[in-house]
Task: structure prediction
Amino acid sequence: MELAERIRKLPPYLFVEISRRIAEKRAQGVDIVTFGIGDPDLPTPKHILAALKEAADVPANHRYPESEGLPELRQSIAGWYERRFGLAFDANKEVLPLIGSKEGIGHMALCLIDPGDVALVPDPGYPVYSIGTMFAGGESYLLPLTEENDFLVDFGAIPADVARRAKVLWLNYPNNPTGAVADIGFFEEAVAFAKKYDIVICHDGPYSEVAFDGYKPVSFLQAKGARDVGVEFHSFSKSYNMTGWRIGMAVGNPTLIDALMRVKSNLDSGIPQAIQRMAIAAVEGPQDTIGEHNAVYQRRRDRVVSVLQGMGLRVRPPKASLYVWARTPEGYTSAQYATRLLDDLGIVVTPGAGYGEHGEHYIRLSLTIADDRMEEGLRRMEGWAGAK
Ligand SMILES: *Cc1c(COP(=O)(O)O)cnc(C)c1O
Result:
């Protein structure tokens, strides 16, 4: 049996070594505290679950859904963009529900990339941008996100010959894993760059509702000219604690939305309708849980940042996202430091190198950890002699 090159070319799972050690520790009876997983720990709000339960009893929801999603859901998403960002979209042509935004991000590459084409991909970054590119036969040109540049893409540093060959630019703010945020000026710079070189922009924005200290992230689509060149991927996962239900959306340029719809309609048969009803309930219902959850994450952020700073690590409190991104001490790679935290303290953090070469010398701690577990982990770190 010979598997396709795209499978053979998949990078080895970058956290294999650390996963092996976690399993080993657990087997030895070590009480592991994990800051590794970016998946909201609090449950899906009750009124959203109520919509699922009600929808489960409706026979129409037992049948194949339409690929393009329920018209009511597309309308609800358009309404949310209008209320939240002051942007009007045609629910029939500029909005497409997805089976989680990851699904759309992966499939978007099939709309834009032919064999040998180039995608511009941030490093560190969410792995799907470059894997989707590789699956489509393309190559990723990595754009370093550095602390000196506030983890923003430096468009001036992209060589003109690379830009001329590029088909798509991937962006993600508020950013996973760095926690960085971008303003409209940055997105307008991105649009100007994309127009100059005829490049599509795909902005991945699942953290726009997860923000602290009164800060409100912008949408890429608010930038002047954004919808001429791009789409925004968004998700119910992080805003409404719905990662397990798998529902997201793409919004923006109708040509891109149509292309993605055509790919999807040949590969999937839509989102279970009862889950689409949950998404409608999420955007149409009370929004209080967003602020409540953010207050929880903000309190955790402050605790985590203060303990890491106490350990002598360089870390900036993020204004948004679910992640704290901390510089490892001199003399450690990110994997070495993560391994020490695991061996000495039974604490799991994600080594930054897992997100790309420029994630080296950082670790990521997720704020989606129950308070009592977080406090247990922080207590161990506070008393750690190895910190010095
Ligand atoms: C969580 C996450 C997503 C995926 O969200 P789903 O809608 O659950 O697929 C996409 N991009 C980034 C950067 C994420 O962190």
Summary: Residues 38, 100-102, 126, 172, 176, 204, 206, 235, 237-238, 243, 248 surround pyridoxal-5'-phosphate (CB under 6 Å). The first strand starts at residue 33 and ends at 34.
